[in-house]
Amino acid sequence: KQWYQRRVAITAGIAGPMPQKVRKILQHLRLTEMNNAVLVQHSENMIEKIRIIEPYVTWGYPSLRSIHDLIFKYGYGEAEGVKSALSSNVIIENKFSKQGLLCLEDVVKQIFEAGPHFEMLIEFMYPFKLQPPKGGFRRVAVHFSKKGAWGNRAEKINTLIRKML
């Protein structure tokens, strides 16, 4: 798919000291710790925000399999005011049955397609707390296109996600 046809992007925090404007955007996206990742809906407004924070994050377009693996391994949501691992369909069914979402596979599909309940699901879920990538980030101060760590990885984000699972 062309970049403008993609619906979902993932961003992961990678770097340290930053300007106040960048910090505020990262807080808005809930990227408050290194190696945290969030799924965001692809839109011009979101891409503008990502461009501002780009030297401090890496981002790209995750595959269905990557989203599935993230949710099944690192997915947490807030059920009845308590942070709970998304390991049971009961949590999803209790929270989202009115929206027709009955299992984790429904959640994965809804997020991958950026369906009508995308925002509600993302608000329900906590940011993914990933492991540092095996082998570490290389050249954190350099853009990905120049063999660095930060910036748009497009579909290559899936390789990074595998290293961080």
Give a description of the structure:
With 165 residues, the protein is an alpha+beta fold. Helices cover 38% and strands 18% of the residues. The chain is built from seven helices and seven strands, in the order E-H-E-H-E-H-E-E-H-H-H-E-E-H. The chain has helices spanning 20-28, 44-53, 64-74, 89-96, 104-112, 118-124, 157-164; strands at residues 8-13, 36-41, 57-60, 76-79, 82-85, 128-129, 151-154. A five-stranded mixed β-sheet has the order 6-2-1-3-7. It has a two-stranded antiparallel sheet with strand order 4-5. Strand 4 and strand 5 (82-85) form a beta hairpin. Helix 3 crosses helix 5. Residues 1-5 have low confidence and may be disordered.
Mean pLDDT: 81
Decide which structural class fits the backbone: alpha+beta
How are helices and strands ordered from N to C? EHEHEHEEHHHEEH
Instruction: Please give the order of strands in the largest beta sheet.
Output: 6-2-1-3-7
Largest sheet: 5 strands, mixed
Taking pLDDT < 50 over at least 5 consecutive residues as the criterion, the unreliable ranges are 1-5
Q: How much helical structure, as a percent, in the residues?
A: 25-40%
DSSP helical segment count: 7
Radius of gyration over all CA atoms, rounded: 16 Å
Strands, count = 7
Q: What's the short story on this structure?
A:
With 165 residues, the protein is an alpha+beta fold. It is built from seven helices and seven strands; from the N terminus they run βαβαβαββαααββα. Helix 3 crosses helix 5.
